């Protein structure tokens, strides 16, 4: 797609996390995440940019996340927005959690989990759509723990695949799909 800011795009996102390591069958929803990548040669100011799912993008609910003033994504770096605070790695420089009063990213379950699909949107501060991806389309199924990832990884013109199909990692928030650093 043609993007207002060509170099910034959604590189990876995880709708359905695994259960917590402590056990159970309920996904650890805090672990939902959206990874934004800047493949350009200059930093991009993300202040006021927003992340939506389908319901918030429709206007039915508030944005899932609004990037805080002063949030700058350097060239060649990725910024990860997790659903909940418990998922943010200690010390991570380019990571935060959804700042919508604890409501989280709210990605719906996938088609193969007896639920509707959903979508992710990245919207600029001026309200224009920057990037999006949907798993509402029949045939785009969600598997627990498997993130959607650009293919090739970190390519703004890439198509979409499961991260696991690239380098065998279920998901790689804050890292390249082969788990090397950005
Ligand atoms: Ca990644």
List the helices and strands and how they pair.
Elements: E1 8-14, E2 33-38, E3 44-45, E4 50-52, H1 54-57, E5 65-66, E6 72-73, E7 78-82, E8 95-97, E9 119-123, E10 129-134, E11 148-151, E12 159-162, H2 164-167
Parallel strand pairs: 7-8
Antiparallel strand pairs: 1-2, 1-11, 2-7, 3-6, 4-5, 4-9, 9-10, 11-12
Order the strands across the largest sheet as they lie in space. Answer: 8-7-2-1-11-12
CATH hierarchy, class: Mainly Beta
If classified by CATH, what would the architecture be?
Sandwich
Overall pLDDT: 94
Q: What's the helix-strand series?
A: EEEEHEEEEEEEEH
Number of strands: 12
CATH superfamily: Lamin Tail domain
Organism: Corallococcus macrosporus
InterPro entries: Lamin_tail_dom, Lamin_tail_dom_sf
Domain LTD: 2-137
Protein name: Lamin tail domain-containing protein
